[in-house]
Amino acid sequence: MERLSRTPRLDNPDSDALRREILDYFNTTFDRYEQLFEVLTSDEAYFVKPIALRHPLIFYYGHTATFFINKLLLAGLIEERINPRFESIFAVGVDEMSWDDLNDDHYDWPAPAEVKTYRKQVRQTLDRIIRTAPLTSPIHWDHPWWTILMGIEHERIHLETSSVLIRQHDLKYVQSHPAWPVCRDSGPAPANQLIDIPAGSVTLGKARDDAHYGWDNEYGLRQIELKALQAAQMLVSNQEFRAFVDAGGYRDARWWSEEGWDWRNFAAAEHPSFWVRTNDDWQLRLMCEQVCMPWDWPVEVNYHEAEAFCRWKAEQTGLPIRLPSEDEWYRLYDLSNVAEPSPGHSVNANLHLDHFASPCPVYRFAQGDFYDLSGNVWQWTQTPIYPFEGFAVHPCYDDFTTPTFDERHNLIKGGSWISCGNESLRTARYAFRRHFFQHAGFRYVAGAPPTAIPDSRYESDELASQYAEFHYGDEHFGVANFPQTLARLAISACGSEHNGKALDLGCATGRASFELARHFTAVDGVDFSARLIDLGVQLQQQGRLRYTLQEEGELISYHERDLASLGLADVANRVQFSQGDACNLKPLLTGYDLILAANLIDRLYSPRRFLSQVHTRLNPGGVLIIASPYTWLEEHTPKEEWLGGIKRDGENVTTLDGLHEALDAHFELIRGPEEVPFVIRETRRKFQHTLSEVTCWRLKD
Amino acid sequence: MERLSRTPRLDNPDSDALRREILDYFNTTFDRYEQLFEVLTSDEAYFVKPIALRHPLIFYYGHTATFFINKLLLAGLIEERINPRFESIFAVGVDEMSWDDLNDDHYDWPAPAEVKTYRKQVRQTLDRIIRTAPLTSPIHWDHPWWTILMGIEHERIHLETSSVLIRQHDLKYVQSHPAWPVCRDSGPAPANQLIDIPAGSVTLGKARDDAHYGWDNEYGLRQIELKALQAAQMLVSNQEFRAFVDAGGYRDARWWSEEGWDWRNFAAAEHPSFWVRTNDDWQLRLMCEQVCMPWDWPVEVNYHEAEAFCRWKAEQTGLPIRLPSEDEWYRLYDLSNVAEPSPGHSVNANLHLDHFASPCPVYRFAQGDFYDLSGNVWQWTQTPIYPFEGFAVHPCYDDFTTPTFDERHNLIKGGSWISCGNESLRTARYAFRRHFFQHAGFRYVAGAPPTAIPDSRYESDELASQYAEFHYGDEHFGVANFPQTLARLAISACGSEHNGKALDLGCATGRASFELARHFTAVDGVDFSARLIDLGVQLQQQGRLRYTLQEEGELISYHERDLASLGLADVANRVQFSQGDACNLKPLLTGYDLILAANLIDRLYSPRRFLSQVHTRLNPGGVLIIASPYTWLEEHTPKEEWLGGIKRDGENVTTLDGLHEALDAHFELIRGPEEVPFVIRETRRKFQHTLSEVTCWRLKD
Asked: How many helices (H) and strands (E) does chain A have?
């Protein structure tokens, strides 16, 4: 096949040359996408859905063009829409997640010829922009032209995903096409074997100044040490997988995860999806035709099928057979010195449409000791996609990756015969739902379970994420971080000689606990809400915390905070978080030099019960710090339990009066009352701005 | 009778003499109160309630002593309670309003002898304090000793109100007592007559530097011109009132207000409360005995009965007979040169216990052309109590008056035979619920309806009072007044040549409307909420606005704002407030040079409908200003109506984008977006701090 243009280096100092290269990259991509739809046999083929939960192909035909327009509008490279109606119809609906948008009643699809005309208009617009818009090299993440590359790489992704949909279409809607020649080699598969891989380290993540375009999730850094393991030399072939099918693997829940078994039952799957049983024989559905089963080609399955095979294989062999982690895939890739596609050369892999418009035998492309570490079909990993350290969303495409940080989308690596552009690079990182089909199979490894990966989720619970920002996020209106301020005040009140144990009661997401750990040798962070404590625990265990914040209406932003940049990495392990009720504390929680009760007392069901015993938990000379805006609400505290803010016997009783009543027997007030402000961000423009009254009490001897 | 000490001048520069006078004032008051309870015949008399909705007399016996302790504690004159249990029992429950506290189960009354002992302890304490506490003259409102006078005057009030309760007690519980000699003069009453009063002015209100103690509601200033009227020479006597009773006045709803008729039916009243029918004759219940009806004594009735009599009398005479206003009472008082009680002389009035422990004939004490403008019995006015300009609550007794600013407590004037101390002064101002009985009757006048009095109410609705403070109150965190800032910005955007009509849409309590009136010749203030507009209207009509704010828990503070001190008195009449729906405005609202929509669009059910027609309401070159934090909530605006803060066709649409979409056809953006902050106070320590995005749009030609 004619070599398809490679994703360009964006740091070419010759901006005219760079402009020409991008123009070529755009046009060849646009052409190739047009060619894909030429395999369809009729207009009807555009309108009948290949699978129920996704749009018909007409959507995908228009979508990649509309995407250019939307992103260039955002970047200010164009001013006006070309066809607002089409650009509404073709804008969203790529992913199965949007199944509620897929009701056909909502759509009045235009004819393919109309879309072809629209695509032509878009091409002319892009052609003009690329030829004429000002361009300074290099093109980086914030550069307006980044969106042009984004559009091209986006179309290359859809070149692949649409080829999968076409492969799922009824045969009558597709035809062979000279631009899409399949591999004709097939035969029995050689036996697979495990190859020893020594322990070693890998580095993942794309540098911010990398010369090639990248998607948001690729950037950042992860370095990790891996133990020795064994890895299969080849991808699992149809033949190797057949043993599992023949052994009744699809009918035995033992091999499947719960989620996988649910899928199997829902889909009534009996064998790989593209396998077709014909009179006791097997055929394989390719993109445009059905062929006798090429047993030595890689089997194409979803994650659940791959995982079930591994469990079965492990029992068969007595070896710890499993899917690799993303880290492990990189280890194999790096050890084998796999080359990325480059201009002017065919790549040594069934990749980038350099060789076939189909898979090929699993022993065709040797890369080091292995075959097909890159290319042929994607390889499932057991790793749900997660952000690397330093992850940030691109402002022009904030939902490219973030919706997949849900522990339900697993990474696939290596690319397939049709993966091109960014997809063909080492740093490429794509993830799909575990039950999805792509041109994807798997390679197994044998070894101990891999290192756990960081939690990928963004905390999105409104209260929890507001608290996370309150404790670890930006300051607003010049108001200093509240838990940090209180912790400093507490440390100063205790003095250097009292630095034993501290209790942060009502610790919420834990900032004050960590700050106290700078001074105290041990800090207990206790809160009633497990939900909030979890964020502190997450920060402690993983060093970072991610959450979303509401910006305006339903628009959100993504935030990451880490202990290291707060200067807390070294002391965080002095903190012990636990759930507890301040009105009924465990006897264990005692012997403190400090008890901090920040924004706590007006949320307790019985603040008096707490205050009546708190002296028993302090060491001699210990300090109790109470901070509260005294926002008494009956939903938290029955009125008869309010410490103050009441009329008693006709006279005003303030909460400060109530604190004196409750504490004077055992404590002397050594500092305060003073007002310490805090700000909680609700949206980009809406904040709670509150004054907390702080009093410091020392236990009398 | 022995003359009871007068309320002392508090500006005596000889502080030793002042101290001695206060000691005497305290002791004689305490003694006289003790004497009152000597008319009770048994301990049982202390425990049986004279009327169902008020405490038994034991409460009142202890209450005045406890009151001293509570107030002196507040003032820091004493440090500790004398008897915490008693001081809880005797603290509150004076007013019928507290009927829910009157369940006897809540109380375990001590024996009268115990209370007598307690009173002795209190007296010793007060005696010591008055003898020894530091004293600098003069004693003013903020002086710690003010609370001593407060306690004494408080006891003098209860001397009177307890005498009413005793009068309502069963006869078997009371006995005559030499310290309480009644008047024995009675006979037929002379015919009443109307006396002409020329038009003239009166001045009400006590100066802040007045030499005598005063209650909070007495201070301030009111000057008013009164029209000519006629006033009855004498109080209405039992005889004059009898004609109404005999005419079936208590059975004819025509004469009664709705509220009065409800009371009559509830009470099944057939005649004045203290009248007793015996064998076709009438007797009158006095404090300690029942006597043949003294027909020439003043009738004692509540407000409803007095009002009904006047309506009946008006029909009888064809004259505009009615109750006087408070202003009118002062006009008569001033014209008649009534003298206040002074030391060393008996007052020329049945007042201050100088003459009788009962009423006396209505023609006994002539004062100018009238009788009994002061003394004998209180005189109901048609004026509900309201605060004068400059009113402020006293911090040591913030619920003395404020609970009566509810349009349900009418002023009584002139004092009765037992009114002494502060009660006997011209400036005295007491108000009771209209159905209450005191030693009170009435004088009628004939004339056109009096000038309406200012609204006395404090806005206490949480939202409305927060808005009042937001618009007219204090600034917080250094954030400038928001509606004022917007109005200035609007005036600057319009320029001096555009100063015709302005529309303040979503005007709430109206501050921006008033501020715009500094520049525009006419301003329409329109809001959906009649509740909020009402506050603007109140400010416009009365020049002032009063509201309460939450401080901490149930504790509140009282606030008054006026147009004059905001510099808005001269322009306020340019504003016209009306209720309206921004999504469906009346056609009349058009021809504006400015439309200001502040914090409006994200509270509309269809902001697009508003924006689609707003250009039709502006003059050529007119300016539209939109300010909003874009806090879209489905409770206000269905999501499909949100202007922005949404994902549309996969892309982020901000509200600013949505504004451009809605407005660009008719407007050009001439200023902004810029963020203008505002702060809304929720409690003393809790605030909403928000950024409103402001954009200014000029109508295209």
From this structure: 16, 26
Residue B145: both structure tokens together: 């000793």
> How many CB atoms neighbour CB A450 within 10 A?
21
Q: How confident is the model at residue A97 (pLDDT cuts 50, 70, 90)?
A: very low
Measured distance CA(B687)–CA(B678) in Å, rounded: 10
d(CA B631, CA B634): 10
**Could you give the CA distance from residue A150 to residue A137 in angstroms, rounded to a whole number?**
16
H helix or E strand, kind and range, residue A659: helix A655-663
- The mean-pLDDT minimum among A349-353, A399-403, B382-386 falls in A399-403
Q: Which of A394, A555, A695 has the highest number of chain B CBs within 10 A, making it the mutation to test binding with B?
A: A555
Classify residue A602 by its DSSP letter: G
Q: What is the DSSP letter of A237?
A: B
Q: How do the domains of chain A map onto residue ranges?
A: 15-173, 194-382+405-445, 462-699
Q: What is the pLDDT of residues A516-559, one digit of tens each?
A: 999 999 999 999 988 899 999 999 998 989 899 999 999 988 89
What was the pLDDT predicted at A3? 87
Instruction: Inform me whether the pLDDT recorded for A102 exceeds 60.
Output: no
CATH topology of domain B194-382+405-445: paralog of FGE (formylglycine-generating enzyme) (3.90.1580)
pTM over 0.90: no
Backbone angles phi, psi at B687, to 5 degrees: -135, 150
How many Å lie between the alpha carbon of B477 and the closest alpha carbon of chain A?
9
Report pLDDT digits (tens) over B484-507. Answer: 999 999 999 999 889 999 999 999
Do residues B486 and B479 lie in contact, with contact meaning Cβ atoms separated by under 8 Å? Answer: no
Q: Which of B280-289, B389-398, B462-471, B692-701 bottoms out in mean pLDDT, i.e. has the lowest? A: B389-398
CATH class of the B462-699 domain in this structure: alpha beta
Nearest Cβ partner for B555 among A645, A649, A691: A645
Count of CB atoms situated within 10 Å of the CB of B203: 11
Mean pLDDT, to the nearest integer, of A362-386?
A: 96
Distance CA B94, CA B99 (A): 9
How many CB atoms lie under 10 A from the CB of residue B668? 11
Within a 10 A sphere around the Cβ of A356, how many other Cβ atoms? 22
A460-479 per-residue burial string, b: 16 or more CB within 10 A, e: under 16 = eeeebbbbbbbbbbeeeeeb
Question: Residue A110 corresponds to which amino acid?
Answer: P
B92/A649 touch (CB, cutoff 8 Å), yes or no: yes
What distance separates the 2 farthest-apart alpha carbons in chain B?
96
Better pLDDT: A168 or A451? A168
Instruction: Characterize A169-191 residue by residue with b for buried, 16 or more Cβ atoms within 10 angstroms of its Cβ, and e for exposed.
Output: beeebbeebebbebbeebeebbe
The alpha-helical segments, DSSP class H, found in B297-338 are 303-317, 326-335
Whether B392 has a pLDDT exceeding 90, the answer reads no
Which residues of chain B neighbour A95 with C-beta distances below 8 Å?
none
- Which amino acid is present at B312? W
Contact criterion met (CB below 8 Å) for B593 and B500: yes
User: Which residues of A fall below an 8 Å CB-CB distance to B?
Assistant: 66, 70, 73-74, 87-88, 91-92, 398-399, 477, 551-555, 629-632, 639, 642, 644-647, 649-652, 654-655, 675, 679, 683-693
**Residue B89, token pair as written in the block:** 């029992």
**CATH superfamily name and code, B15-173:** dinb family like domain (1.20.120.450)
Question: Could you tell me the pLDDT band of residue A642, with boundaries at 50, 70 and 90?
Answer: very high
* C-alpha to C-alpha distance for A432 and A452, rounded to whole angstroms: 19
According to DSSP, the β-strands at A575-579 and A522-527 are parallel
pLDDT band for B120, please (50, 70, 90 cuts): very high
A291, β-bridge pairs:
A284
Spatial distance between the Cα atoms of B593 and B699, rounded to a whole number of angstroms: 10
Whether A15-173 and A462-699 share one fold: the answer is no
